[in-house]
Amino acid sequence: MWVVLALATVSGCLAAFLALRYLTDQRALMAAEPKAASVVVAARDLTVGTIVTAADVHVVKWPLHATPPGYLGSSEMAVGRGVITPVRTNEPLLEGKLAGKGAGGGLSVTIPEGMRAVSVKVDEVIGVAGFVVPGTRVDVVVTLNQQGRAEAITQVLLQNVPTLAAGQFTQPDAQGKPQRVTVITLLVTPDQAETLILAANEGRIQLALRNTMDLATLEPRGARSGGLLRVGRDAPGGRSTTTAPRSGVTPDRAVIEAYRGGVRTLIKF
After folding, report:
1. Mean pLDDT of residues grouped by 10 in the chain (269 residues)?
2. Which of 142, 125, 262 is nearest to 202 (CA)?
3. Which of 27, 81, 136, 223 is the least buried, fewest Cβ under 10 Å from its Cβ?
């Protein structure tokens, strides 16, 4: 009997010891300060082209296990560099959001390597009533007049082209209002730059605003001035769609066709 009591006592003491040890470890874990890293964040909203100053940033503690890739650990790493993508207040400044040291600011730092910025003159029609703003995407449509050609032609020239700037604005209006400007700057490849400049000089270009989520590339047939109206078009099979009067019948006179004794007679009025 006493053996059973002894074993029970030892088991109880062991369980109590293990429980105490567990609680002690938990208190130690809760009391220990988690490891953290220094991360540079924006002190205010920073627009594209801004040169970062010491007043634009501050350093905060960030959980080490959750630090964003490419984060900056000190304000010196950000000051003097140009912003190439918009940064919001308290958002971390990452390497990918800033231009290299000494690159400066402005529009030029936002142009990816191998791309070009080309500005085109616009009016209310070409600029889609001011709704072609930075960050939107457009198709470029060119119309070549009849000079030296059989007919005028309109064709989609470039598709899904990003807009870098509207006038001197590199950011859209915060309320989404249209920006009425006279120049739109587009981001294109060198080949597209040649095509765009030639089209602007040889004809009239217009911008077709598209949904920024629509990345599809289509193959429109283009439009010709001779195909706008039905007059003169041929019906399938080569037959003319216009109806010519029958031979010997004047269109503006009434004609009655009569038969007497098998003889056909036309009576005109």
Report:
1. 64 70 66 77 89 93 88 92 89 89 76 90 85 90 78 89 86 78 92 93 90 85 76 50 48 61 64
2. 142
3. 27
Residues 152, 146 contacting (CB under 8 angstroms) = yes
User: pTM of the prediction?
Assistant: 0.58
Residues 6+ apart with CB under 8 A from 229: none
Three-state SS at 3: helix
d(CA 119, CA 163): 10
Q: What is the identity of the amino acid at 117?
A: A
User: Which DSSP helix (H) or strand (E) runs through 159?
Assistant: strand 153-166
H or E element in which residue 12 lies: helix 2-31
Q: For residue 124, which of 45, 79, 178, 74 has the smallest C-alpha distance? A: 178
The Cα–Cα gap between 93 and 60 comes to 12
Residue 161 CB partners (closer than 8 Å, separation 6+) = 137, 138, 139, 140, 186, 187, 188, 192
User: In the chain, what is the straight-line distance between the N-terminal and C-terminal CA atoms, in Å?
Assistant: 140
CA atoms 103, 107, 112, 116: torsion sign: negative
Q: Which regions of the chain carry the CATH code 3.90.1210.10? A: 36-109
